[in-house]
Amino acid sequence: MTRRSSDYNAGDLFGELYLAEDTAAPAAQRAFSEYVPGLLLCGTAALAAAWLASQYGFPVILLGLLIGLALSFVSEVEVTAPGLDFAAKRFLQFGIVLLGLQVTFAQVMALGWVAFGGLLLVMLGAFGAAMITARLSGQSREAGMLAGGATAICGASAALALYGVIGKDRLDQARFSVTLVGVAVASAIAMSAYPALAQLAEFSDRQAGFLIGASVHDAGQAIGGAFAYSDAAGRDGTVVKLARVAMLGPIVALVAVWLGGSGAKGIASRGRAFLPWFIIGFLVLLIANSMIDVPAVVRGGALDASKALLLLAVTATAMRSRLSDLLEAGWSTLLPVIGATLASFAIAFAVASLLL
Questions:
Q1: How confident is the model at residue 123 (pLDDT cuts 50, 70, 90)?
Q2: Based on C-alpha coordinates, what's the Rg of the chain?
Q3: Looking at residue 2, what DSSP letter applies?
Q4: From 21's CA, which of 105, 191, 200, 317 has a CA 20 to 30 Å away?
Q5: Per-residue pLDDT band at 265 (split at 50, 70, 90)
Q6: Interval 226-258: pLDDT, tens
Q7: Other C-beta atoms lying within 10 Å of the C-beta of residue 353
Q8: Which N-terminal stretch is annotated as signal sequence (predicted)?
Q9: How many separate domains does the chain show?
C-alpha cells in the first residue's frame, strides 16, 4: 500500500506522531505484532552492517546509515512504519541512557586543569565553527547546533541525542541524515589520519593522546586511533574522549533550554520539560557510576547494548528518510560538519603543541 505524503515519517526522534488520527491507532494501543515487520527489517539491516564492519574494518555506524538509505524505499510501506519509528526513537533513547555507565567524574578530573581547559576550548571552537559555517552557507542555527554538537561531543550518538531535542519541525530528517553521514565519514578519516599527523609532528604520547581523543568524533574510533599511536597515548586518549562523552548531558540540556526559550515553537510552549528523560537517565547513571564501583562486566555489557541500540536507531532513521529529500537538502548540508571538524583539529593540535 502506498502512503500519502502527509503520512511519511510518522514518528521522529523527538517523539511526535504525524499520522492523521483516522489512519493509525495511538502508539500505546498498538499490538506487538504491528512492530514486528519494521523491527525485523531494521534488525536484519543492522546485522548486515555489523558483519560487513567485522569483515572489512569499516565504521559500523556509517555502514548502518548507507544500508538504511539503500532500503529507504520501505518508507512507502505502511506495515514497516511502526517498528521503524519505535527503533528510531526508543532504541536511541535507551542507547543514550546506557552511555552514562561509561564515564565517571573522577576520569574527567584526572585530565588536570590544563588539559580539561584545552578540551573545553576544542569543544567550544567546534560548536562555534559549525554555527558560523551554517550561517554563512544559508542554513539554520539548528543545523549548526547539530553539526557542532556531534563534532564536539561523540559523533553519531550526540547527533541523535541533539536531534531528539531539536525535532523534525526545526530540522527535517533529510538534513539530519546527511549530517550523520558527514559526521561518520569525517570521524573515519580522522581516525586514520590524525595518528599519522601526530607522528609527523613528533608528539609525545600525552600530546598524541590529547589530539586524537579531543578531535576524533566517534568514541570507539577516537580510542582506537589513540591506541594505534601507542598504549600510553591510548590510555590518555581514552580519558580525554570519555571526558567529552561526559559533556553530552550538559550540552544537550543547554541546547534544550536555548531552544525552549526561542518562541512559540519552543519546547516550553509545547508543555514539555526542558530536559529530555533520556538525558536525565544518562546523568543519573553517570552519577551512579561515579559514586559506586560498577562491575566491569556490567559496564561492558552496557556498552555493547548501547552500541547495538544506537546502530539500530541510526539504521531505522536512514530507512525513514526519502532519497528525494536527501538530494533536495544538498551536500552544502555537510559544510557545518566540515567547518567544525577542521576547527576541532586545529585547536586540539595547538593545545597539544603549546600547552602539553
A1: very high
A2: 20
A3: P
A4: 317
A5: very low
A6: 877 887 888 788 788 878 887 888 888 888 888
A7: 12
A8: none
A9: 1
